[in-house]
Write the structure tokens for this entry.
Amino acid sequence: DGGITQSPKYLFRKEGQNVTLSCEQNLNHDAMYWYRQDPGQGLRLIYYSQIVNDFQKGDIAEGYSVSREKKESFPLTVTSAQKNPTAFYLCASSPPGQGGYEAFFGQGTRLTVV
Amino acid sequence: QKEVEQDPGPLSVPEGAIVSLNCTYSNSAFQYFMWYRQYSRKGPELLMYTYSSGNKEDGRFTAQVDKSSKYISLFIRDSQPSDSATYLCATGTASKLTFGTGTRLQVTL
């Protein structure tokens, strides 16, 4: 089945620790996106990548980093510089030229700081 | 001011009712208009999209866009308990989408 796989589903992070969230897609989409979802705030764009080896900051990139070494993979690292990382993280991909309007989302990773 | 404004609800309606969900946006450059449905603890799924002003119908769902007033609507006819979810509007340009906060809908028996 084609789709987007995020792992893990739940992740716990200690203060000061970096963690990496995985996102893999087999839809052959060029563009991939990371969003953060908080109650009452909707989805906010963290980073996006339109092509391999290239990515751009979204609206709330501080404290996060990404890489795009393969078309299928777009991992997100939540660094210790992110002061309020507890949230629901969503990865998405879209076909070329669509601007993310036909975005396909993964099932999300819920990150909690302990 | 947020670029996309959406009433968070919750909105509770009886089964069979007509539901109206709405968003407003501020950027006249936005070209794409979407509605996503998100069940609890799941990722959003695309419900409907449109590129222009006017109506688009798909089964029990109708999406309406009025670019002159920057207003986006989603109508659900004959609502079912399985429609209970959070509905997110989204709009944007060719390079970026902006989402509303989502409206939580509960359809009761």
